[in-house]
Amino acid sequence: MKNKLSLWIVVVIGLLVSMGCGAKVDVIKLGIAGPLTGDQAKMGTDVLNGATLAVAEWNAKGGVLGKTIIIVARDDMAQEQQAQSVAKELAGEGVIGVVGHFNSGCTIPASVVYHDSNIPMITPSSTNPYVTDRNFANIFRVCGRDDQQGKVAADFAVNTLKTKRVAILHDKTQYGQGLADEFKKALGANAETVYYGGFPKEELNFKPIISAVKETNPDLWFFGGIYNQAGPMVVQAREAGLTAVFMSGDGVIDPVFLKVAGASAEGSYLTFSRDPKDVPTAQAFLDKYHKQYGEHGPYSIYAYDAANIILSAIQAAGTTDGTKVSEQIRKTVYDGSIGKVQFDAKGDLASSYYIIWVVKDGKFVPYENK
Amino acid sequence: MLQHLVNGLIQGGIYALIALGYTMVYGILGMINFAHGEIYMIGAYLGIISLAVLTAIGGPISGLPILCLFIALIISVVFAAGYGFSIERVAYRRLRHAPVLSALISAIGMSTFLQNYIMVAQGKENKAFPAFFKEPLISHPYLVGGARISLLEIVIIASCVLIMLGLHLFISRTRIGRAMRATAQDKKMAALVGIDINRIISLTFIIGSALAAAGGVMVSMYISTTRFDVGYMTGIKAFTAAVLGGIGNIPGAMLGGFLLGVVETLGIAYISPDYKEVYAFVILMLVLIVRPTGLLGERLAEKA
Question: What is the pLDDT at residue B298?
Answer without folding.
Answer: 62
